[in-house]
């Protein structure tokens, strides 16, 4: 693939790899602690739903070393941190809405004292019955906002003409982000009422806004700085705000630095996760298995406040067809308010939950009719020029990915080999499933699709770049550096990517929606191009030409008519500096062409779509109910990857995270709304044994123009959805053992459920 493309700079090495390897990369906890720093601990509500009668902090404040215990009444500004809907207090005021909801913030001389004192706080809460089930919440009218419906064609009429109609239910569970670095922040007061906050956040501007509101201080006084995250996966798009606001409130009030990083168990109990969904589907097909009508109702378990749920819900609707063309669709989604921690962004952002239901519906039909689900999938792949329910006409590579996978991996042979294996083995059964994907790239909220980059060229020719992009392991800094190196024609070593800072780059969208490299990379490209054009003018004078088009910068040298000159990058920069040419530029990028009208639920919300097809093979041990993911073979639509190492890593990581969601990871709350899967002993995440035996990734060869940065399509989220194939592959293996197995469409397919299903 494009590793050989000459647009790519001499090195694609991840710029973090050396410091990562040496343990020198800086995370929040590596920031040296200033003398006088205090440490926080946050008390979470012990009950899921109730009325606060009193909070007695006297014993806690009496603990030696405790400086102050903050409660809602200490908030100087607004007690409100909701981003989309203003429904989320920073500290519980009169009511508690979920177990772990922040109630009080203890600040003490040490972390241990703070935690000890926190346990001395006495809360008197009149308990009410919690609601944890989204369907029950809907019945009770507990919705975050009214339902939304996407429509195409006329479903009711279409069902009348269907040869086959089936109805069923499909549920998917939540997922713990389990970023290696837990949530946290370190707030340091500056002069004149300003405050600097180091935050482990994907959304520095979101943190800035929340802090500004809580302190009642304008945004220009709030500096958020992020070097990198030890993972975010969506969990820090909005939910880093709480901890930063608590630290900032205490630091501002006491005028000393305050730090708080969550204990892993608190992080698991207090923060929201991927949204569980319960869904009803009705699907109608023609005799030749074309899907003619699809009606689906999603019950999103939103949790106790909106957080990002409305946006997540929107993306569920956008992706409810997955990669299939269905002429008649009615998809309705309810954001159901429950007494659980507010659920939030998680890789795929509601898309995977939507796709799981259509895949379940197809599998349901296949099992009822005794046909192969892959036949139904293949016949319904969307083609270029066909619309989704939201009306965007698709430039489709669905068929191309499928065909490339079918040819490269010989699907026919895989099916035959599995049949032979299953014939010959009584206690082990193999299964396979194909998972074609289509994921829209852009924030679904059009307004958010913009970014800025601030580029400085110093007089020695070295370059610094600041953008709104947050590095969280996905390699975005390396990609931005590549963009700058290619644009300026200099070696990547000449370029440093700085921390993400709200004083240098303002009003940023979070690093999310897989769009960070596209948005911030394009902003950097715009800034670098403007600088380059100025430098070309300087070089032109020096080379006595007026033909700017004939000049180019490459490998740190100036070329005239493709011939190397004696002029170096450094010499041109120095001359420009002496001539008082501006060597700083701010680039602004706003994705063109996209628009969406929420009133009609129609528009063109995505810059482009990413396609792919995966084939998953599994072996189920039918005595024990355990299974191995033998292999996953993928054809993925990279566009033209600008960094194959990083992009392959994203696919492998996303895939395994998706497999975890679909097979192992079981978020369990009890009827009281308490998290039972509250530690790594009770919540199983993928380990080396859950990783597929082999992962093969082939690029789809395309030379299409797309709107991606350097044509290198966004890759952060789409691969997670390849993991959905593991659920259906296991299901197929179970059916090979017990054709009459009764298996609810209810993910994850844990070994326990697998065992029950084998003998059902
Ligand atoms: N990869 C790593 N290593 N760590 C992360 O936290 N987050 C994922 C994905 N890949 C994540 C990751 C999510 S949820 C998104 S939206 C994208 O990266 C965000 O980065 P991008 O926009 O640069 O792809
Ligand atoms: N994706 C991810 N994060 C978001 C989105 C989206 O579409 N919209 C708002 N935050
Ligand atoms: Mo990713 S869920 O958009 O942070």
From TrEMBL:
Keywords on record: Molybdenum, Oxidoreductase
Occurrences of domain Aldehyde oxidase/xanthine dehydrogenase a/b hammerhead (ranges): 22-129
Q: Where is the signal peptide?
A: none
Q: Which InterPro entries match?
A: Ald_Oxase/Xan_DH_a/b, Ald_Oxase/Xan_DH_a/b_sf, Ald_Oxase/xanthine_DH-like, AldOxase/xan_DH_MoCoBD1, AldOxase/xan_DH_MoCoBD2, AldOxase/xan_DH_Mopterin-bd_sf
Q: Which PANTHER family match?
A: ALDEHYDE OXIDASE 1-RELATED (PTHR11908:SF132), XANTHINE DEHYDROGENASE (PTHR11908)
Query: Can you say what this protein is called?
Result: Molybdopterin-dependent oxidoreductase
